[in-house]
């Protein structure tokens, strides 16, 4: 039998946030009952759909906020409520506790936090239901317990006689006759440990004092120990003198046993919850550890791939510039193939890193007004040459009402180029590829990339946006690629608050539609600079290479990778610079003091002394401020900032473009 999906109601008045939560939940396999924006709607929909969990924003539109809505749900419908809010002040927390929430998540939160909170809420709710069922079962047992009444007549402050109802035998095992024959039998059958308490309360009754109901044990005639509850009512004459009191004795043994069992069950459930919580915490810790290990692995792999690529692409570029001599056409074609393959590998590395950054929440967007038509035209130019090789006709139909859109221009272009490149790749020679832009009344701009290619089957569409998935999985694939592109496209569209849809017919073509909201005010307004671009730190001036120097400026190349260092040195020498090489940070520091270079190309990961430490030592030298370019295979989030903070003027990630490097050196030396 198939397992029923957990049904969740989302209560969130910010559309983009609500859609983001919906996407996360659907990826986790939950069923979304509905998405509403007010407390009133939340109450109605929760009752209508009988949902399993409610995700409730505290600050809502309408007359009642999320906390009041949760209170109503708590009274009307037994459903766990998890608060989602950007506010975590003490007053809000205290109000929220009154509605007995099952969880409290502070925005922004990670998908794994949301998943853990929902699963814990469902688990706790199930346990509480079990407890309620158990308590109801024990209450029914207690209702069936038999009790009996006795009357003590008092004369001059002493017990004159005691009468017991016929039901006394059911509780004590003794008959009325046995109680009459032995007036002290009641005290004699009290359990030894409780005897003093019973005597003290009896004496207080005889003195005319009211006594609260109390519980104690008795030993039945058959030797069984039973729990009883003793309740007394005093009777006085007109002068206020005590004349008698009535007692009600209830056998509460089953209740006591039930309470003990319930207590044990509560303790057991508490232990289970604690164990489950510990397991989830351990799982979260393992997930966090795995995420850290993945980041470390990606950083290491990025470094290890970029270092040899730096040599391959750098040497290829130098050869293409004919620095080492003239080339034949055949040699030039071979170098072009090497360059193309190397840059394809670099693109794969960047795709993997982008996907990892998105998954870790470390990829941020630089949102600004973007000219829609310009971005589209630039994307089309990128695929024009490849389309021309296959005689594919390109069309562009722009019918958007607004000229600009708030978005990250680089990432937007990355989305379109990826979709257009796929369209060209999967369209046979002589086919058509197009980009249509429309703005509708739904406050969105719709970008449709279409083609007359091979098409996609309905079952394959479901797998399109999964990482590393390629629909043509045979060993003889006709269409090369990593299967990362569409996954990146989907994630980046979601980060913009939009969504992507696909329609396709096998043998006729496909249509990929990216829908983006017109207003993205809630999106992040900043982004780390792209790792492959360089950033000049304005705080450090260069006085080592005057503009009109007649001597060739000295460039120090610090790199423990001998091939990389020699390749850069040869290139720079042919560009007219004097060059020295240092194989680690300590040697770079010593040569800086001896040679006073105009500029230093500093690798970061080196033996003996690392590049960052060497930069800091160099910046501490008096009367010396060479231009320093951090030239490294480190390309993870925060690497650029660490290099600039240490004192580098520029940061460039390997492999670098040699022409660009030459231009940056020239710019730094001639400021």
UniProtKB/TrEMBL annotation:
The modification 4-aspartylphosphate is found at residues 57, 603. CDD domains: HATPase_EvgS-ArcB-TorS-like (cd16922), HisKA (cd00082), PAS (cd00130), REC_DC-like (cd17534), REC_hyHK_CKI1_RcsC-like (cd17546). Its EC number is 2.7.13.3. Residues 266-300 form a coiled coil. Residues 300-520 form the Histidine kinase domain. Residues 7-122, 554-669 form the Response regulatory domain. Residues 212-264 form the PAC domain. Keywords: Coiled coil, Kinase, Phosphoprotein, Transferase. GO terms for cellular component: plasma membrane. GO terms for molecular function: histidine phosphotransfer kinase activity; phosphorelay sensor kinase activity. It holds the Pfam family PAS_3. It catalyses: ATP + protein L-histidine = ADP + protein N-phospho-L-histidine. This is histidine kinase. It comes from Candidatus Moduliflexus flocculans.
């Amino acid at each position: 039998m198939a397992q029923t999906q957990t049904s969740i109601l989302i209560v969130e008045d910010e559309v983009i946030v609500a859609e983001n939560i919906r996407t996360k939940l659907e990826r986790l396999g939950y069923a979304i009952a509905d998405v509403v924006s007010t407390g009133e709607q939340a109450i109605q929909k929760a009752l209508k759909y009988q949902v399993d969990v409610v995700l409730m924003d505290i600050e809502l539109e309408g007359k009642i906020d999320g906390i009041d809505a949760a209170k109503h749900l708590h009274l009307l419908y037994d459903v766990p409520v998890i608060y989602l809010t950007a506010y975590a002040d003490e007053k809000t927390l205290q109000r929220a506790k009154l509605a007995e929430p099952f969880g409290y998540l502070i925005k922004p939160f990670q998908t794994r936090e949301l998943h853990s909170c929902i699963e814990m809420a469902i688990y706790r709710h199930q346990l509480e239901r079990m407890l309620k069922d158990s308590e109801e079962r024990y209450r029914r047992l207690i209702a069936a317990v038999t009790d009996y009444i006795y009357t003590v007549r008092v004369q001059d402050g002493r017990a004159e006689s005691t009468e017991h109802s016929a039901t006394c035998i059911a509780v004590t095992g003794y008959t009325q006759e046995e109680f009459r024959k032995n007036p002290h039998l009641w005290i004699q059958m009290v359990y030894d440990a409780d005897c003093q308490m019973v005597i003290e309360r009896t004496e207080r009754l005889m003195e005319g004092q009211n006594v609260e109901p109390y519980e104690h044990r008795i030993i039945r005639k058959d030797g069984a120990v039973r729990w009883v509850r003793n309740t007394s009512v005093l009777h006085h004459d007109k002068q206020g003198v005590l004349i008698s009191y009535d007692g009600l004795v209830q056998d509460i043994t089953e209740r006591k046993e039930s309470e003990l069992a319930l207590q044990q069950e509560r303790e057991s459930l508490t232990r289970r919850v604690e164990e489950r919580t510990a397991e989830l915490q351990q799982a979260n810790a393992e997930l966090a550890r795995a995420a850290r290990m993945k980041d470390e692995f990606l950083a290491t792999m990025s470094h290890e791939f970029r270092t040899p690529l730096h040599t391959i692409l750098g040497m290829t570029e130098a050869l293409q510039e004919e620095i080492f001599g003239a080339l034949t056409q055949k040699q030039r074609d071979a170098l072009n193939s090497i360059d193309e393959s190397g840059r394809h590998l670099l693109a794969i590395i960047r795709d993997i890193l982008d996907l990892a950054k998105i998954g870790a929440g470390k990829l941020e967007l630089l949102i600004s007004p973007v000219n829609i038509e310009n971005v589209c035209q630039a994307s089309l130019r990128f695929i024009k040459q490849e389309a021309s090789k296959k005689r594919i006709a390109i069309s562009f139909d722009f019918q958007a009402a607004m000229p600009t859109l708030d978005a990250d221009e680089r990432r937007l272009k990355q989305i379109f180029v990826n979709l257009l490149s796929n369209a060209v790749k999967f369209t046979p020679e002589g086919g058509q590829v197009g980009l249509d832009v429309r703005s509708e009344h739904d406050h969105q701009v719709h970008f449709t990339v279409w083609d007359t290619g091979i098409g996609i089957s309905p079952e394959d569409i479901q797998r399109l946006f999964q990482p590393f998935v390629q629909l043509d999985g045979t060993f003889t694939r006709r269409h090369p690629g990593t299967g990362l592109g569409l996954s990146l496209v989907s994630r980046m569209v979601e980060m913009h608050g939009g969504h992507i849809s696909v329609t396709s017919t096998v043998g006729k073509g496909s249509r990929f539609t990216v829908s983006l909201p017109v207003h993205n005010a809630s999106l992040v307004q900043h982004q780390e600079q792209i790792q492959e671009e360089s950033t000049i730190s304005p705080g450090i001036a260069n006085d080592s290479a005057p503009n009109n120097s007649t001597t060739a400026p000295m460039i120090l190349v610090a790199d423990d990778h001998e091939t990389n260092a020699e390749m850069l040195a040869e290139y720079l020498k042919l560009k007219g610079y004097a060059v020295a090489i240092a194989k680690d940070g300590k040697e770079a520091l010593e040569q800086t003091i001896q040679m006073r270079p105009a500029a230093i190309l500093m690798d970061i990961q080196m033996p003996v002394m690392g590049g960052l430490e060497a930069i800091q030592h160099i910046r501490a030298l008096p009367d010396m401020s060479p231009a320093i370019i951090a030239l490294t295979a480190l390309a993870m989030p925060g690497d650029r900032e660490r290099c600039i903070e240490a004192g580098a003027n520029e940061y460039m990630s390997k492999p670098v473009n040699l022409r660009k490097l030459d231009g940056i050196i020239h710019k730094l030396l001639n400021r």
